[in-house]
What we know:
By secondary structure, this protein is an alpha/beta fold. It folds into 3 domains: 65 residues, no CATH class; 127 residues, Aspartate Aminotransferase, domain 1, CATH 3.90.1150; 265 residues, Aspartate Aminotransferase, domain 2, CATH 3.40.640.10. Helix content is 41%, strand content 14%. The strands form 3 sheets. Strands 4-10-9-8-7-5-6 form a 7-stranded mixed β-sheet, sandwiched between helices. A 4-stranded mixed β-sheet has the order 1-2-3-13. Strand 7, helix 11 and strand 8 form a beta-alpha-beta unit. The longest helix is centred in the middle third of the chain and has 18 residues. The chain is globular and about 60 Å long. The N and C termini lie far apart (55 Å). Belongs to the class-III pyridoxal-phosphate-dependent aminotransferase family.
Amino acid sequence: MITESGVRNTLTFVRVCTARxxxxxxxxxxxxxxxxxxxxxxxxxxxxxxxHPWSPVKETVGDAPILVSGEGYRVRDAAGREYLDAxxxxxxxxxxxxxxxLIAAAERQLSLLPHFDLSxxxxxxxxxxxxRISGLLPDGLGRTLFVNSGSEATExxxxxxxxxxxxxxxxxxxxxxFAAGYHGTTLVAQHLSGxxxxxxxTLDPFPVTRVELPVPARELRAPESLAPLxxxxxxxxxxxxxxxxxxxxxxxxxxGGVVLPSGFLRALRELCDRTGALLVLDEVFCGFGRTGRVxxxxxEGITPDLVTMSKGLSGGYVPFAALSTTEAVYRSFxxxxxxxxxxxxxxxxGHAVACAVALAVLDVLEERKLVPAAAAxxxxxxxGLLPLAEHPEVAxxxxxxxxxxxxxxxxxxxxxxxxxxxERGTLLRRQGCSVMAxxxxxxxxxxxxxxxxxxxxxxxxx
Length: 462
């Protein structure tokens, strides 16, 4: 029987045959039937034409895996080898790979309306997903702007914070943040960070005060570190012009997988209330279940003034991000003298297909109870990895929800640990000296046990 899907696949194949030549035909044929592609050709093509982000420029072809498919929390490379993905792709694969509900949502919306410019019209999925997000956030955070990436959400948050104070007739432009924080790689996002890799080499667009950690990362989660950390932020806020906003992550991800002390976000909320600064929470990494709560700030029971979101919101299936804020912040933009609204947006911001996929992601999170599952699996993961702290090359083992950090004393050792784990079929992520396990939220107990076992074996291989 010839199905509609079969016809579509055949037509796609014929178009590719005509346009790209024999090597791509072979790749497509092999991928469709689940066999290995021509790995050597694929690797040479990638080396010749692709500029990889956050990667060294190489004169020789590397051996990084060429991934061709995935299912659940596993991926398969061009050589047919399977890996447990403890990176969740780009830390955004919340629902895992090949999820039928997410694929169906994208296909359905593509057949109806892929997108429409939200500055001149609207579409059904955008209102629906905004409503769903509002229902997950604390009361008061009911107005959402949609963009394409976490970096763009950061750009919007800074623009909104600055615009809010201009709208009130009391301009403020200084931002307070962590020196070890990370909020994206656009100019404004990199300007916020004090990480060496984020230096922009341009004139500063606005003043930023970056707060250094008062103690090493491995000590920061201890209760006694709360007071010096809060004092450091208080000094930053009070020393200088009144800040427009305090902009922090609930968990320092790229900054080393750092768990913050309990009570810190509550203290920041009180500090912002006292000084008038807006509190912006970067939930790009933490949001939608990663920490075992819907949002990282839910552990503290606070309400920020602005929240940035991305990654897990669309499960890695399509680019999507959002920023939610209060009605008061939103309404202040009626005072804008030029258009009476926000002068910011993107061609595909609030893309209809992305909105539809995000709705399906939220359904899956709810139906499969993936947020409490992340808390439970995270406890198992951390408990399994804690014994690794006894290794002389390991400085600390810590975690929050379904993210665990093995901090090494040397970045070279951390890189070797990641390489050895990959040889054993597990993909881990490295941030400097920290090796991080960040599997999709759909991972089960058997997957967690395998992740613990292979990481331990990789450490023993040293």
